[in-house]
Amino acid sequence: MSARNTLRGALALLAAGTAMVAVSPAIAQDAGTFAITNARVVVGDGSAPIDNGTVVMRGGRIVAAGAGVALPAGATVIDAHGGWVTAGLVALGTDLGLLDVGAVDDSNDSTADKAAFNAALDVAPAIDPDALPIAVSRAGGVTRAAVAPTASNAIFAGQGAFIDLGVDANPVNRARAFQYVELGENGARLAGGSRVAAQAVLHNALREATDFNRRSGAARASGAKAAPARTGDDIPLDPRMSDSSAARGTDALLTRFDAAALIPVVTGGQPLYVHVERASDIRQVLALGREFPALRLVIVGAAEGWRVAGELAAAHVPVIASGMIDLPARFEQMASTQSNIGRMTAAGVKVAIGNFFDNDQPRYAPQYAGNLVALKKLPGATGLDWVQAFATISSIPADIMGESAHYGSLLPGRAADVVIWDGDPLELGSGPVQVFIDGVNQTLLNHQTKLRDRYRHPQEGALPKAYDW
Amino acid sequence: MFVKLVRVLAFAACAASLAACGAAGEARPKSASAKSASADKAQTFDENPYPSTYKAYPGDAVAIVGATVYDGTGARIDNGTVLVSGGKVEAVGGADLAVPAGYRRIDGAGRFVTPGIIDIHSHLGVYPSPGVEANSDGNEATDPTTPQVWAEHSVWPQDPGFSRALAHGGVTSLEILPGSANLMGGRSVVLKNVPARTVQGMKFPGAPYDLKMACGENPKRVYGSKGRMPSTRMGNFAVDRATWIKAVEYRKKRDAGKLETRDLAMETLVGVLDGKIRVQNHCYRADEMAQVLDMAKEFGYKVSAFHHAVEAYKIADLLKSTDTCAAIWADWWGFKMEAYDGIPENAALLQDAGACVIIHSDDENGIQRLNQEAAKAQGSGRRMGIAIPDGQVIRWITLNPAHAMGIDDRTGSLTPGKMGDVVLWNGNPLSIYSRPEKVWIDGALMYDALDPRRHPISDFELGQPGEGDVK
Question: Considering only residues 387 to 426 of chain A, which have any Cβ-Cβ distance to chain B shorter than 8 Å?
Fold first, then answer.
């Protein structure tokens, strides 16, 4: 970054006179000790905002967040001037890092309709931390995300990853964090034309994986191979590489890689994310859970989830719901309503806002959460309290990901993912002014902000715009 | 400001072609006596064969008292009073405005009033919910130029999307456009957002027709993939220009009284050249917009607004000087190559340069929260040091789209005598926490959040799971 740009960025911030927070133009490259003082602190775990609070982070982790927190010696102090400071946003169900431009196929790794494999597909090696959608989402306050492949040649889309949006070379926090399967209208199409076919494909796949696991276990018992389930750093070993010497049934339909990839699913080591929308499809997924008790099910979509909310709650199956669906866009979404999330939450279902694909950008998460708060004032609708709504885009998605001990809130010991806002983070006019990921102060400059600055005045000067950078 | 300019231009268009600017509803040749009987048929025809049958529904005289009023022109009135009677806006004023006898009084304390919200770019009805193939009626993608098709012949009045746009978005008027597969997609139709059995029962009485045009990726992709022209941007322009050349010749023939048969496609294009039909032009990139403006000059027509103009901020000065509106999303970006340079400050930069800003939806969900999209665009401006007053931001979704659609003399602001299209919000419409509480269309209460019976349910949703839900 040139000195000129730094100056302009600083001037732009000064010009934004209503911004309440003074931001240092210098971007720290490492996780130092920071104390954000005089803040309205939102921990993100569903607790009430704390006024005059302080957030202390050191070495990339939260030390403390709340009132009466002592300032550690040597901390860089940032006065929030009463402004909002929250946990970073967590977005489940994104294509971040898998594409530059959705409609430019060459740049898009989210689908693979001509691939030979499906369940074995693993997005982790394809994730590009330099992809512009990551930078834009980061500038919107999104600090962690689950990246999912899009099913395109089979009901199984493959394995998703949990990532951070920090400016560094290592985006993947947890590879192969979940398997993704389509079982609604889309699954019917991918299975050959019907839900009937999708159920057959699914059951066959789970049985083949179970059988393969049994046979490879026998192979292990005979000393042929012993693959550890975990590498020790909490990232599971790539299941495609395990048990490769085991024999399989002679009538196997799945490729060896695909069958191996489903072993962690049938043994409960890896959650199975199931995309369904209508009430009857959700009931079938819950029945599947009874048939294969080891499955760790997460339901994605669930536009009609409110109609089966009690059953979802009883089965302890969490839901990643879309924020604002209220139209029968498909027959399977006939009863969709903006009250879906509120009603499921009220019934005791763990619900996160998610599913930000295509042009539904992760940075819209606060707008969706805010709309759920608005429903509280609408007679007949069911919304969420502000703190509940914020939790649906911070701690609850981290919890569904199985990462609440590490991410999604400002509780001590969590990764220091912290966002300083220029207003109520759920309010339309607000935006982040400073973002920390793993305690590192992130740049918020990107292609968009540079275009903004270049075209502050559209007229060209003595030289064309191309020289203005 | 641009209202005046457009009127001057419209006058000029009429002056150049006296034949087309006579009595409304009929195109008269210059010399009626000098042509054959068949030419007479080709030139004298009903220009409004599918007329609106919409009539305002009954409504009480209403006085909203003590509300914050954004009147659509940019003005804000605190502790304001809005009077609606006989289906029209009667008066708008401060606390001193007396409420005449016979008005139903509505407490506006803590609430906000705006004109009905207007969406200049919607595909409700032509791409309805459910979005099944059988309902896919928005693109006549069999020829790159189809100015002969009319969107109203595709609109399904039972699209549940209309009711959501009303209840959650306060939308009272909307323009339904053909899609963007074609360079010339066909005529649009302007609707009042009232449920009806027929499209005619929704048509905005007397609204002008528009021609939907598209430049850029879509037409060249759709036809290039079929192995036919256009497959490039230069092909896009060549096909457009060849078609306009035909239209200019057709108009000459008409003016000379020499038309033998009617040509629906040419009638639409000549309507554009005559200044009666506006052009709504889907166009993302700044460089392409600049060339479209030259093409409009070449053939003597006017582009009313560029839609999806994600790069409009790069040519804000050109759009201002040509009096061309930019109809845009707040922050859609990057989903296709020609959207790669979209920025959330687009609206603010355009406003700052004095250009005409419209926030549009192009989306059955976005149309439910145009107020929210406008507020986001305002916030992005504020963060870069461009402060835009709330009243002006409301204008982006009321008077400005009405202006670009040619209905600003009837709706789009709370000006006395205009249609009683009014939204009472339960808080500031530029806040995430606010929703429409009541929506009047021509003075009739068509939605009331406090009265479940004032929630329209389309035929499609009747007897289905979720029927009658707040949605």
Answer: 422, 426
Report if residue A67 sits inside a domain: yes
Give the minimum alpha-carbon distance from B303 to chain A in angstroms, rounded to a whole number: 21
Task: Identify which of B331, B364, B471 has the shortest CB distance to residue A338.
Answer: B471
For residue A405, being part of any structural domain is answered with no
Tokens of A161: 């990853």
Element (H, E) at A218: helix A195-221
The reply to whether A143 falls in a domain is yes
Taking the CA of residue B218 and the nearest CA in chain A, the distance in Å comes to 11
Q: Is the same domain home to A16 and A118?
A: no
Whole-complex ipTM: 0.91
Domain assignment of residue A464, yes or no: no
Surface of B (180-209) touching A: CB under 8 A: none
Contacts of B313 in chain A (CB under 8 A): 455, 458
The structure tokens listed for B157 are: 């009045």
**CATH value at residue A36:** 2.30.40.10
Co-location of A171 and A151 in the same domain? yes
Q: Does A461 touch chain B (CB under 8 A)?
A: no
End-to-end CA distance of chain B: 40
Q: Is the pLDDT of residue B170 over 50?
A: yes
Helix (H, G, I), strand (E, B) or coil at B304: strand
> Is A10 part of the contact surface with chain B (CB cutoff 8 Å)?
no
Give residues 299 to 328 of A whose Cβ lies within 8 Å of B: 304, 307, 324-328
Q: Which residues of A touch B435 (CB under 8 A)?
A: 374-375, 377-378
The CATH number linked to A352 is 3.20.20.140
- A283 and A169 in a single domain? The answer is yes
Neighbour count for residue A73 (Cβ, 10 Å): 6
Pair A377, A242 in one domain: yes
Number of Cβ within 10 Å of residue B334's Cβ equals 24
Interface membership of A19 toward B (CB under 8 Å): yes
Contacts of B189 (CB under 8 A, 6+ apart): B150, B151, B152, B155, B175, B176, B199, B203, B207, B209
Using a CB–CB cutoff of 8 Å, tell me whether A228 touches chain B.
Answer: no
A293 and A175 in one domain?
yes
Q: A350 with A398: CB under 8 angstroms?
A: no
**Does A344 contact chain B (CB < 8 Å)?**
no
pLDDT tens-digit series, residues B309-345: 999 999 999 999 999 999 999 999 999 999 999 999 9
Same domain, A109 and A188: yes
Residues of A in contact with B387 (CB under 8 A): 18
Query: Which CATH number is associated with domain B2-58+117-411?
Result: 3.20.20.140
B343: exposed, middle or buried (C-beta count within 10 Å: 0-12, 13-18, 19+)? buried
CA atoms within 13 A on the CB side of A220: 13
Give per-residue burial for B57-67: e unless 16+ CB within 10 Å, then b: eebebbbbbbb
Going from the first residue of chain A to its last (469 residues), give the mean pLDDT of each consecutive group of 10, the final group possibly shorter. Answer: 36 38 47 95 96 97 96 95 97 98 96 96 98 98 98 98 97 97 98 98 97 79 47 57 72 94 95 98 98 97 98 98 95 98 98 92 98 98 98 98 97 98 98 98 98 96 95
Residue B95 has pLDDT above 70, yes or no: yes
A256 and A189 in a single domain? The answer is yes
Q: Report the gap between the CA of B189 and the closest CA in chain A (Å).
A: 23
Residue range of the domain that includes A275:
90-400
> Global pTM?
0.92
Q: For residue A234, what pLDDT is reported?
A: 54
**Residue A379 to residue B450, Cβ atoms within 8 A:** yes
Tell me if chain A has a CB within 8 Å of the CB of B372: yes
- Report the chain B residue with the minimal C-alpha distance to residue A333: B130
Question: What pLDDT does B24 receive?
Answer: 37
**One domain for residues A119 and A208:** yes
Query: Count of A–B CB contacts within 8 Å?
Result: 173
Instruction: Count how many domains chain A has.
Output: 2
- Out of B160, B340, B372, whose CB is closest to A101? B340
